[in-house]
C-alpha cells in the first residue's frame, strides 16, 4: 500500500484555512507587514494566488533599508514555491542557494537558519534524503542553540516525518511528539494538526493500527468542526490505509471509495489519482483485478515519477496484475520502475514487497536461480523490518514514558523565548519613545541590570534542569549522549579504551503493577544511588529512559567494564530493601560493550551494548553480558 507521502502534503496545504484580507487602514507600513508575516507563519494561507498577493503587498510595505523585514520576506518567498508543480523544486533550491549568499545573514542567525531549513526541505522533495537528513540534524542543533522554538518545532517535525517514513520510529516518534507539543505551546493549531497527523501515521507504520485510527479520527473530527472538508477527506483516506493494514479490506475499500468520490466531485484530479492507487492495492488483495486495473489507468496520467511513494506502488500494483494475466515482460518492466522509485526514497517495506512479487514472476518463467535470489532478498529485508519493528515497540514505550519529560523541556525553552521576546518588545518601544529613554535613562539602566542578573541566574538554573533527570538527579539522555559523543571522538583520536554499560531493572512493569508507581520511582532512585556509590567520579551514569540507564566508562577496557557491570548487578540484588514493601526484591540486567577499531559511529558502540543487554535478558536476567 502506498504510504501517504503526498497525502501529508495535501493535508499540509489543503488543511490550512483560507482567510480574507485584514483591515490595515490605520496601521503603519511596518505594522501591516508584521500582521501579514504572522498570517504566513501561522499556516493560515494556502500556497496559491492569495499567498502571492500578500508577498507582493509586502514588497510595497517594506523599504530596502529595513534589513530585518527584507530578510523575513526572503524567507517567506523561499517557502512559497509549490513542490507539487513540475520544475518548482529546482527553482526553490536555486532561490535558497542565492538567498543564503546574502552577507546580511551573518547578523541574523535565525533568518539564516530558516533559509537553510527551507533549502533542506526542498532537497528532500528533490529525492536526496541522505543530504536532507544531515541538514535536519544540523538545523535542529542550531535551533536549540538559538533557543528558537518555532525552528525547533519545524525542523524536528520535518525530520520526524522523514525518520518515520524510512522506518526509524525511534527518532521519528520522539521528534514528532516534541514538535506537536511545541506547536501547541506556541498556539499554532494548523501546524499542530499536521504534527498530529504525522504521529498517527507513525503509529500506523509501527503496526499499532488501533492507536493510529484513534488519532486519525480525532484529527478528522477537528477538521469537520472547522468545516475543513478537504482535509477531513484526506484524513479519511489515511484511516482507510490503517483499516487495510489491519486486514479490514472491505471497510478499507468502502472508505477509499468515499474519499475517491469526494475528490472526483470537487474536480481534484491529483488527489483523486492518489486514492485510485490506494483502492487498486485493496482490490488486488480482494481479487478484483479488472477494477484495480481501471483505477490505475485513471491515476497514471497524474502520478509523476517525482511522487515516489505513489509512483512506486502504482507500478508495483501493475506488476501484480500483469503477473496474474501471465504478461511477464510487462511485469518485469513495471518492477523496474517501482524499484527505482523505492530506492530513491529508501523505502525498505516497499522493496521487500517488490522482491516477493519479482520472485513469483521468475517462478512463472521457470528461472529458478533468479527466483531464489529474489526470495532470499525478500527474507533478508523482511527480517530487517522485523528487527526494526521490535526496536520500535520498545522505543514507543520509552517515548510514552518520556512524554512528560519532553513537555517539561519544551516548557523551559518556551519560557526563555518569552523572555527574549519581551526584551525585543522593550527595545522596539524604546526606539519609538526616545525622549522617555533620555528622561528615564538611568532608571531604566538599573531595571535592565537587575533583569539581566535575574535572567542569568534563571538561565543557569534552566540549563542545569534541562540536563538533569528530575527523579533520580542523574544526568539525562541529552547530557549523556553529548558527553558520550565527545568521549567517543577523543578515544578514537588518542587510541584510548572506552566502554559503556547499558542496564535496566528486570520486570519493572510488574513492580509498578504490583506495588504502584511510587514504589517504582523509589526503586529507580535506589538504582541511581547504587551507581553513585559504586562508580568513581571519572565515570558517568545517566538515566536515558523509563527504567534504562547508561554508564560511560572512560579509559576503561572490556575486562574492567565487565567487572564493574557484574559488581553493579550483585550490589543491586543484595541491596537493603527494608524501606520497601514486604517481599519486595529487584534485580537488573546489563550489557557491556567497548570501542573497536572499526567503529566510526557512537551508535555502533551503543547498539552492541543494547544487544548484550538483550542477551542478558534472554539468558535469565540478573546478570551482565559482554557484546
UniProtKB/TrEMBL annotation:
Coiled coil: none annotated. Its EC number is 2.7.7.65. InterPro entries: Diguanylate_Cyclase, GGDEF_dom, Nucleotide_cyclase, Rev_trsase/Diguanyl_cyclase, TPR-like_helical_dom_sf. The chain crosses the membrane at residues 435-453. Keywords: Membrane, Transmembrane, Transmembrane helix. CDD domains: GGDEF. It holds the Pfam family GGDEF. Residues 496-627 form the GGDEF domain. It catalyses: 2 GTP = 3',3'-c-di-GMP + 2 diphosphate. It is an enzyme of class 2 (transferase). The keyword Transmembrane helix applies. It comes from the Bacteria. This is diguanylate cyclase. It comes from Shewanella schlegeliana. The lineage of its organism: Bacteria, Pseudomonadati, Pseudomonadota, Gammaproteobacteria, Alteromonadales.
Amino acid at each position: 500500500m502506498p504510504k501517504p507521502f503526498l497525502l501529508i502534503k495535501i493535508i499540509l496545504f489543503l488543511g490550512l484555512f483560507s482567510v480574507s484580507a485584514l483591515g490595515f487602514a490605520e496601521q503603519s507600513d511596518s505594522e501591516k507587514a508584521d500582521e501579514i508575516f504572522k498570517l504566513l507563519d501561522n499556516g493560515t494561507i494556502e500556497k496559491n494566488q492569495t499567498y502571492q498577493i500578500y508577498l507582493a503587498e509586502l514588497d510595497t510595505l517594506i523599504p530596502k533599508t529595513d534589513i530585518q523585514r527584507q530578510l523575513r520576506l526572503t524567507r517567506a518567498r523561499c517557502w512559497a514555491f509549490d513542490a507539487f508543480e513540475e520544475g518548482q523544486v529546482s527553482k526553490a533550491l536555486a532561490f535558497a542557494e542565492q538567498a543564503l549568499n546574502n552577507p546580511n545573514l551573518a547578523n541574523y542567525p535565525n533568518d539564516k537558519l530558516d533559509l537553510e531549513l527551507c533549502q533542506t526541505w526542498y532537497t528532500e522533495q528533490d529525492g536526496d534524503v541522505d543530504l536532507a537528513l544531515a541538514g535536519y540534524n544540523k538545523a535542529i542543533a542550531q535551533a536549540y542553540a538559538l533557543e528558537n522554538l518555532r525552528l525547533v518545532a519545524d525542523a524536528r517535525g520535518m525530520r520526524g516525518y522523514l525518520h518515520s517514513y524510512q522506518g526509524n520510529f525511534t527518532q521519528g516518534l520522539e521528534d514528532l511528539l516534541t514538535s506537536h507539543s511545541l506547536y501547541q505551546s506556541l498556539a499554532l493549531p494548523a501546524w499542530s494538526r499536521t504534527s498530529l497527523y504525522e504521529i498517527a501515521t507513525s503509529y500506523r507504520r509501527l503496526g499499532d493500527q488501533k492507536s493510529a485510527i484513534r488519532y486519525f479520527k480525532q484529527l478528522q473530527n477537528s477538521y469537520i468542526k472547522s468545516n475543513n472538508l478537504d482535509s477531513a477527506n484526506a484524513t479519511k483516506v489515511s484511516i482507510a490505509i490503517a483499516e487495510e493494514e489491519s486486514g479490514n479490506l472491505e471497510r478499507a475499500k468502502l472508505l477509499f471509495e468515499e474519499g475517491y468520490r469526494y475528490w472526483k466531485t470537487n474536480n481534484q484530479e491529483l488527489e483523486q489519482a492518489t486514492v485510485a492507487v490506494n483502492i487498486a492495492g485493496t482490490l488486488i488483495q480482494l481479487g478484483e483485478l479488472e477494477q484495480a486495473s481501471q483505477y490505475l489507468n485513471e491515476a497514471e496520467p497524474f502520478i509523476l515519477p517525482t511522487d515516489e511513494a505513489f509512483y512506486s506502488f502504482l507500478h508495483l500494483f501493475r506488476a501484480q496484475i500483469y503477473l496474474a494475466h501471465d504478461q511477464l515482460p510487462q511485469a518485469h518492466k513495471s518492477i523496474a520502475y517501482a524499484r527505482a522509485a523505492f530506492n530513491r526514497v529508501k523505502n525498505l517495506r516497499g522493496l521487500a514487497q517488490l522482491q516477493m512479487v519479482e520472485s513469483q514472476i521468475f517462478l512463472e518463467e521457470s528461472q529458478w536461480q533468479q527466483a531464489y535470489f529474489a526470495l532470499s532478498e525478500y527474507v533478508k529485508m523482511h527480517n530487517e523490518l522485523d528487527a526494526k519493528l521490535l526496536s520500535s515497540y520498545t522505543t514507543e514505550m520509552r517515548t510514552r514514558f518520556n512524554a512528560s519529560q519532553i513537555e517539561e523541556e519544551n516548557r523551559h525553552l518556551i519560557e526563555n523565548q518569552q523572555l527574549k521576546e519581551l526584551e525585543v518588545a522593550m527595545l522596539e518601544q524604546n526606539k519609538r519613545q526616545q525622549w522617555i529613554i533620555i528622561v528615564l535613562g538611568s532608571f531604566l539602566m538599573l531595571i535592565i541590570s537587575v533583569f539581566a542578573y535575574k535572567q542569568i541566574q534563571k538561565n543557569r538554573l534552566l540549563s542545569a534542569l534541562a540536563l538533569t533527570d528530575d527523579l533520580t538527579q542523574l544526568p539525562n539522555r541529552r547530557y549523556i549522549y553529548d558527553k558520550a559523543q565527545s568521549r567517543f571522538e577523543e578515544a578514537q583520536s588518542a587510541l584510548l579504551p572506552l566502554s559503556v554499560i547499558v542496564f535496566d531493572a528486570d520486570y519493572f512493569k510488574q513492580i509498578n503493577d504490583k506495588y504502584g508507581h511510587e514504589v517504582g520511582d523509589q526503586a529507580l532512585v535506589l538504582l541511581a544511588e547504587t551507581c553513585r556509590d559504586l562508580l568513581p567520579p571519572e565515570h558517568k551514569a545517566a538515566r536515558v529512559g523509563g527504567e534504562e540507564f547508561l554508564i560511560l566508562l572512560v579509559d576503561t577496557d572490556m575486562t574492567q567494564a565487565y567487572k564493574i557491570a557484574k559488581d553493579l548487578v550483585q550490589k543491586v540484588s543484595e541491596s537493603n530493601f527494608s524501606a520497601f514493601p514486604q517481599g519486595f526484591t529487584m534485580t537488573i540486567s546489563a550489557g557491556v560493550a567497548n570501542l573497536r577499531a572499526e567503529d566510526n559511529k557512537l551508535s555502533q558502540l551503543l547498539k552492541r551494548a543494547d544487544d548484550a543487554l538483550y542477551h542478558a535478558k534472554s539468558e535469565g536476567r540478573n546478570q551482565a553480558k559482554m557484546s
